[in-house]
Structures are given as structure tokens and as C-alpha cells.
Amino acid sequence: MNPKVHVTFIWLVVFGSMMSAFWILVANSFMQHPVGYVINNGRAEMVDFVAVISNPKVWYEFSHVIMGAFTLGGMAVAGMAAFQLLKKRDISFHKASMRIGLWVTLFGSIGVLLAGDLQMKALIEGQPMKFAAMEGAYEDSDDPAAWTLIAWADEREHKQVFGIDIPYMLSILSYNKLSGSVDGMDTVNKRLVEKYGDDKNYYPPVNTLFWSFRIMPGFGALMLLVAALGLFFTRKKKPSLYEKKWMLWIVALCTFAPFLANTTGWLVTELGRYPWTVYGLFTIEQSVSPNVSVASLITSNVIYFLLFAGLGSVMVYLVILELRKGPDYEAKKLAKENEPALDPFDKGVFGE
């Protein structure tokens, strides 16, 4: 394929994927913060399209997801290039590839950090139960508020078993200042009971949310650090990273970090909405169809799991295959195809 046509199709796929992500996140944002609708005969009907697409949640989520995609793409390129450098394959090509990947990772990591910070602050008012669960806070914080680095919760008794706190940090993260308190889950639960009734359990899976919200930014910070140091140690004046296997291994293994960060981020987004399918309108319990059996659910989930596992395996196989071919595979193949056929009676055939 003509290289220009190839690049054009690559960018068309990128643009199409981003548009697809946008509309998926419009739907997800409605589930997080429903706007632009009326209830008609028990159904939610859209009455304001502009309100739906201008939902603040859309832009928090879209910016966060797209920056996460840049981080994932950049780290994948940098990591695969590092693997190839460890094998001493196409050195100059993969040195350049790794630096490009690290620049994209740095850009994406900074973007994720900024978008995530805005998204987290919006939760204080929009979804305070999710915010409190992410911080493992059952009780209202002091003022200033300490941030819990590690903790474990007794979800039955609704209390924290243990925790290690960093003073002032939660106030800084929440309000960008050294003062300010946040409501705990117990306080938020009372408000939700008053508003929606006491027939629901409003406490989300706290330990899953808490640790997901430690893993996600933890890996995000790791990728930011790896990208920044990687670019520093591959600069023209002193490109020492290329000569140190342990450094290359760190970059290579970080290939998988964005997948873990993005996955735990989605766990926070979706599980933190519990017990709602559409926040404040429609519960998970109401979403369960009475006509679908447990066996049907298990069967469909197993089929989907096997399908995506199979597709993922094929993708990994094809990526490895392309890496082994090397960057000059198509050029060499084309050159070989354009070689003139040898005359069987020519003396050169026999090396004479």
C-alpha cells in the first residue's frame, strides 16, 4: 500500500475511534448525571439534545479517556521498541520509535493527571458517595482533611479497620488549599436515605473502589516518571538508557501499565455509581430482567469472555508477528518481487 494512503487510513481510524468514544461517553455520562430528559409513562425521553452532549460529565470523561488512550498508545510503542532494543533488532529505528512513544506517553500522562483532577473535584458535589468511598472515608473528615494512603474497610460494619493517613493532603487534592473537609459515607448515606428512601443499600464496594483509586493514579504517576526519565536518559548529549538493560526492561514492562490503570479507572467509574444504573433514577435491581435466568447470564458472559479472549490472543499474536518481521519487511518484500527473473542459461546463475 502507498505509504501516504496507509497513513491516511491510520488517521481515519483514529478519528473514527475518538468519535465512537465520544458517543459512548455521552451515554455513560447520562447514566452518571442524567440531564435533558423527561419521564413519560415510566420512560426517560430525551427533550434537549444540546443539554445531553453539553453535560459536564461528558467532557470530564472524554478528556480523561482520550488522554488515557494517548498514554496507552505511547507506552505501547515505547515498550515494544524497548523489547526490540533488548534483542538488538533494527537499533536506529527502535531508538527513534521509543523516543516518540515516550513523548506521547508524557503528553498523555500529564493530560490524564489534569483531567482526572477536574473529574475528581466534580465528584465532591455530583457523586459524594463515590468520592467518599474512593477515599475510604466512612466518617466526616477533619479540617484540614488527611488523605488515606492505604487502608482496609469492614464493609459489613461500615468502618475502617486500619489506615495510614497523610495530613492536609485530601484538602489539597480536593480544594487546592490547606483547609477544607469532606463528608464521609455515613453522612452521605443519611442524605440519600432522606431523598430516595431506606429500601436501598447506598454503600458501594468500598475496598474495590479505594484500591482501584490507588492503583490507577499510582500507575499513572509511574508512567509519567518513566516517560520523563526515559526522555532525559535518551537525549542526544548522553543517551545512556540504550546501554542499560535494566532501564530498557523497565520501559518494556511498563507496556502493560496503562491497561491496568485504564481498567481500574473504569471500575471506579462504574462500581462507584452503585446502587444506580442511571444515577438517582434507575437502580441495578430494577435493571435486571425477570425473564432472564441465571443460566442464561452465565452462558452469555462465558461466551463473551471467550470471544474477547480469543480476539485478544489473535491481536497479541499479530503484534508479535509484525515485530518479528521488522520495519523493513514490506520494502524488502517489494524489492524481491521487483527483482528481474534470472535467465537459466546465464552464467551468473551458477556464480560464474
TrEMBL record:
GO terms for cellular component: cytochrome complex; plasma membrane. Keywords: Cell membrane, Electron transport, Heme, Iron, Membrane, Metal-binding, Transmembrane, Transmembrane helix, Transport. It is found in: Cell membrane. Pfam families: Cyt_bd_oxida_I. GO terms for biological process: aerobic electron transport chain. The chain crosses the membrane at residues 7-26, 65-86, 98-116, 211-234, 246-268, 302-323. It is a multi-pass membrane protein. One of its GO terms (molecular function) is electron transfer activity. InterPro entries: Cyt-d_ubiquinol_oxidase_su_1 (IPR002585). Its main location: membrane. PANTHER family: CYTOCHROME BD UBIQUINOL OXIDASE SUBUNIT 1 (PTHR30365:SF15), CYTOCHROME D UBIQUINOL OXIDASE (PTHR30365). Belongs to the cytochrome ubiquinol oxidase subunit 1 family. This is OppB. It comes from Enterococcus faecalis (strain ATCC 47077 / OG1RF). The lineage of its organism: Bacteria, Bacillati, Bacillota, Bacilli, Lactobacillales. The gene is oppB.
